[in-house]
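Researcher: Good morning. I'm working through a list of sequences from a screen, and I'd like to move beyond sequence-only analysis. For each chain I'm collecting a predicted structure so we can compare shapes side by side. This is the next one on the list. No need for commentary yet; just the structure.
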Amino acid sequence: MVKQIVRDVFFLGQKSEPATRDDLQVGRDLKDTLNANRDRCVGMAANMIGVKKNIIIVNMGVIDIVMFNPVLVWKRGLYETEEGCLSLDGVRKTKRYQEIEVEYFDFNWKKQKMKLKDWPAQIVQHEIDHLSGRVI
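Model: Good morning. Structure tokens for this chain:
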């Protein structure tokens, strides 16, 4: 189901809770909502649709990947960049890593590990920041 985008900075600034298998529908809602906002969005966190759970979705070019309880386990190559967010107006400076490795659970609740670099790595880092209440 397509959900409304949360723009309340107080809500977005709160830390999310671990996701469980009971939260699979939130992942499907993120897919629908990202698809509806594809012209102006490349990733989302569950709190952007009003759910404080550790769930993100990231557009990897040809496929959207939903990650439940994503954790950065490795990072390299810190750089400074500017980012925008569907929940906020404008852009802000931030620091990101050029290369990362992220662990997460997929829709079958199997643990996955993925190495990413450049733009997809930046998107994952932005969305993981949302989960800890860091709004950029």
